[in-house]
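Readers of this paper often ask what the protein records in our data store actually look like. Such a record has a labelled line for the sequence and another for the backbone structure tokens. Nothing more is needed to write down the fold, since each code stands for a local backbone conformation. The record that follows is passed on verbatim for readers who wish to inspect the format.
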Amino acid sequence: MAAIWREHGLPVVDADVLARAAVAKGSRALSAILAEFGQEYLGPDGELDRRRLAERIFGDTAATARLNAIVHPEVRRLSQLKFAELAQTDHPLACYEVPLLFENGLESTLRPVVVVNCSSTEQLKRAMARDGSPASSVARRLQAQWPLAEKVARADVVIDNNGSPSELRALALRALGEVCRKVECDATRYQLV
């Protein structure tokens, strides 16, 4: 959905991209992760072996909390830098694509909140296809997040993504129009009229 908005000129800051940057080769966060969890999570290329670490921590709430305490502050710092850059432009609106928005208590400062919803079966299937991970691994990751129903209940705008890509496109553009109305932003800027 954020990719569709980006195509229409809306700047998108992607928390997953920032998380990768936070733990990049040579970073302080990567060093802290290796000190906390062990050198075996360093890949031969000098990068974090994210898949191996995910297998280790998901399902272990204490380990997940320790990892989050290392990574999340750095992601927050990087996102603040990105938003500061955007504040220097003429963009009246930006999207922060962040899977753990509610889990990290960010919803009060980032309004309106848009949640993309789909069935749990579809969510599992899409995550497996995207990541190339087995169902058990994806299920553990999803269980570490808030249930989608809880996120939907707290959202300002909900997009139902159980349909086709063309249906998602139409719904995403309708949702962007709704966001523009909520924040009194000219929707023509994003080619929505």
Q: What stands out?
A: The first helix runs from residue 2 to 7. The mean pLDDT is 93. The first strand starts at residue 12 and ends at 14. Residues 86 and 168 are 27 Å apart (CA to CA).
